[in-house]
Write a structure and sequence with these properties.
165 residues; mainly alpha; 6 helices; elongated
Length: 165
């Protein structure tokens, strides 16, 4: 496998992920309400209409499912470009990129950027600095992301290996 291509792919995926999160979030913070800690959601709903915000709602599952499907398709192309040669190399590549993005999301986007960016706070929750700086909440979400990432990465590696033969 070509490490230069893998590094470039990872940087491009981080940029795409950041855009996918940041653009809707800046335009309408409620778009990602299901990713905010529960105490922030409840404060928001005191003064705004309640919208689906639990993970297993139709809206959230459609958003996340679509993202997983797109990720699967993109990962297949990334595996080919990087020169994955079998199931395990394809899985290691795709899950490695997934982990880098997951950790970037937790440690930079959630802990640093979003915790300090007032423009992405839900209306009526701007005063909740401590709630926006909850590191444990985002770490737990990151662990869930690591588990969820196994699904598209294993499926993608399986499809990739099947297409090789």
């Amino acid at each position: 496998m070509n490490w230069t291509i893998i590094i470039v792919e990872t940087i491009i995926m981080i940029a795409a992920f950041t855009a996918m999160i940041l653009i809707p979030l800046v335009k309408n913070p409620v778009w990602w309400i299901h990713d905010y800690p529960e105490d922030i959601q409840e404060e928001y709903f005191k003064t705004h209409e309640r919208v689906p915000s639990k993970f297993f709602t139709k809206t959230v599952l459609l958003k996340k499912g679509f993202a997983l499907f797109v990720t699967l398709a993109v990962m297949l192309g990334l595996m080919k470009l990087a020169g994955a040669y079998n199931f395990w190399s394809a899985f290691a590549l795709s899950y490695g990129i997934w982990l880098v993005i997951d950790w970037y999301d937790c440690f930079f986007l959630d802990w640093v950027l979003f915790a300090n960016m007032k423009s992405v706070r839900l209306p009526g929750t701007e005063h909740m600095d401590a709630a926006y700086h909850q590191k444990k909440y985002h770490l737990v979400q990151s662990l869930w992301g690591m588990l969820i990432g196994l699904i598209p990465c294993l499926i993608g590696a399986g499809i990739y290996a099947w297409l090789l033969h």
